């Protein structure tokens, strides 16, 4: 049981148990919630790994599409262990699987993401090269609609050193579906905090790093991460609110230095300003210009950036025109909600796809209402 999470009642139900086999090197953990259309691709990408010493644990976290989900899962029968429980969120789903896992290392895969065939092999090689490592991760493709639109490390270049400070200010950003992690290190850190519905992974990486877990990465993009409209991360305002809670928890529960405390204070201020900017956007889209101006005033009180000043001027001078410009930009950014294309899916047949690796990156659209953060996060 974790003081950070709180272990609930488990209700394991298996289509086929893998418990009779020898302990594998890696336990692959797939939380499943409202993902029936993607779960088969996720499992297929694990079964297609060149590294074969693993077990798969699928956790149905009270998914509302359970009948369809279980119909799809039955196609795989003895290929995985299946746990079904009342909804506890991503943290709770991963925690119950961590307790069930038999391997010394854990690989996390979100049910709407998928791997290239050499992903586990590359991560295992990294772990074997330096036995002191507790966590390894890698670059990944961002997939939106039918297109792999960017590589994460090109959007967010990584610092050489992965530690508490670089993670805190996001000079390093760990994609959960790219990780292979020491089970013992996660248990020492106290598992995922189940009070977080979002940012639970970010919060755990910070705790692990602060307590001395060693982390590293490689720069090959071997994972495909879907950007969807119904995932938890799609609610950007709620993501920022939970990120503020993560910062507050770090400041209140860890013996951080004065400099780190100052950094956390600045990060909280920036995140709060960004939340107000999201409120501005929502109010503008609804034509509520009075609320928009109040929210932009609150954002400027925290960080009076020049784009905020221009936005405030535009809202006062020509609110209708400002709204039309903003909505046009929203429509440009909202394109592409279909299934991944055959080109993206074909990448599963080989770890290295030059066509994807060398694809042009999308140019960010200029924004009148600017949050100061990367759009694809």
Question: What is the strand and helix layout of this fold?
Answer:
Elements: E1 26-32, H1 36-47, E2 54-61, H2 66-73, E3 81-85, H3 89-100, E4 105-108, E5 114-115, H4 119-129, E6 135-144, E7 147-151, H5 152-155, H6 164-168, E8 180-182, H7 183-189, H8 200-210, E9 215-226, H9 236-253, H10 258-285, H11 289-302, H12 306-317, H13 319-333, H14 342-346, H15 354-357
Parallel strand pairs: 1-2, 1-4, 2-3, 6-9
Antiparallel strand pairs: 4-8, 5-9, 6-7, 6-8
What percent of residues are in strands?
Answer: 5-15%
Can you tell me the CATH superfamily of the largest domain? Spore Coat Polysaccharide Biosynthesis Protein SpsA, Chain A
How many domains in all?
Answer: 2
CATH class of the largest domain: Alpha Beta
List how many beta strands DSSP finds. Answer: 9
Query: Nearest-angstrom radius of gyration?
Result: 21 Å
Shape: globular
CATH topology heading of the largest domain: Spore Coat Polysaccharide Biosynthesis Protein SpsA, Chain A
Separation of the first and last Cα atoms: 31 Å
SSE-based structural type? alpha/beta
Low-confidence stretches: 1-17, 336-377
Portion in helices: 40-55%
The whole-number mean of residue pLDDT values reads: 83
Give the helices and strands as they follow along the chain: EHEHEHEEHEEHHEHHEHHHHHHH
Q: How many helices does DSSP assign?
A: 15
Strand count, sense and barrel status of the largest sheet are: 9 strands, mixed
Q: Please identify, by name, the CATH architecture of the largest domain.
A: Alpha-Beta Complex
Q: If you had to describe this structure to a student in words, what would you say it looks like?
A:
This protein has 15 helices and 9 strands. It has 377 residues and is α/β, with parallel strands linked by helices. The radius of gyration is 21 Å and the shape is globular. Strands 1, 2, 3, 4, 5, 6, 7, 8 and 9 form a 9-stranded mixed sheet that branches. The chain has 2 domains: 26-229, Alpha-Beta Complex (Spore Coat Polysaccharide Biosynthesis Protein SpsA, Chain A), CATH 3.90.550.10; 237-336, no CATH class. The longest helix is centred in the C-terminal third of the chain and has 28 residues, at 258-285. It starts with 25 loop residues before the first strand and ends in a 20-residue tail after the last helix. It has helices at residues 36-47, 66-73, 89-100, 119-129, 152-155, 164-168, 183-189, 200-210, 236-253, 258-285, 289-302, 306-317, 319-333, 342-346, 354-357, and strands at 26-32, 54-61, 81-85, 105-108, 114-115, 135-144, 147-151, 180-182, 215-226. A hairpin with a 2-residue loop joins strand 6 and strand 7.
């Amino acid at each position: 049981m974790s003081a950070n999470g709180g272990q609930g009642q488990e209700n394991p139900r298996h289509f086929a148990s893998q418990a009779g086999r020898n302990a594998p090197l890696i336990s692959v953990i797939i939380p499943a919630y409202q993902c029936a259309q993607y779960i088969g691709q996720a499992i297929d990408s694990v079964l297609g790994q060149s590294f074969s010493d693993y077990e798969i644990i699928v956790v149905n976290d009270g998914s509302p599409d359970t009948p369809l989900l279980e119909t799809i899962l039955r196609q795989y029968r003895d290929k995985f262990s299946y746990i079904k429980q009342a909804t506890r969120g991503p943290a709770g789903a991963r925690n119950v699987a961590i307790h069930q896992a038999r391997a010394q290392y854990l690989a996390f895969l979100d049910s709407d993401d998928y791997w290239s065939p050499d992903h586990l092999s590359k991560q295992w090689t990294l772990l074997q090269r330096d036995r002191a490592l507790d966590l390894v991760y890698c670059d990944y493709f961002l997939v939106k609609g039918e297109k792999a639109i960017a590589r994460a490390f090109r959007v967010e270049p990584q610092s050489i050193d992965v530690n508490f400070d670089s993670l805190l200010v996001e000079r390093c950003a760990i994609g959960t579906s790219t990780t292979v992690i020491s089970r013992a290190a996660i248990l020492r850190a106290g598992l995922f905090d189940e009070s977080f519905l979002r940012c639970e992974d970010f919060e755990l990486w910070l705790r692990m790093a602060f307590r001395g877990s060693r982390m590293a990465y490689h720069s090959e993009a071997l994972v495909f991460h879907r950007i969807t409209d119904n995932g938890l991360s799609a609610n950007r305002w709620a993501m920022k609110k939970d990120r503020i809670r993560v910062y507050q928890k770090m400041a209140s529960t860890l013996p951080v230095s004065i400099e780190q405390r100052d950094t956390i204070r600045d990060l909280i201020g920036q995140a709060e300003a960004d939340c107000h900017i999201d409120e501005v956007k929502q109010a503008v889209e609804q034509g509520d210009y009075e609320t928009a101006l109040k929210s932009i005033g609150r954002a400027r009180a925290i960080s009076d950036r020049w784009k905020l000043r221009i936005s405030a001027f535009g809202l006062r001078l020509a609110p209708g025109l400002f709204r039309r410009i903003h909505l046009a930009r929203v429509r440009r950014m909202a394109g592409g909600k279909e299934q991944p294309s055959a080109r993206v899916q074909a990448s599963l047949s080989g770890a290295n796809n030059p066509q994807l690796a060398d694809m042009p990156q999308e140019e960010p659209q200029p924004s009148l209402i600017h949050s100061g953060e990367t759009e694809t996060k």
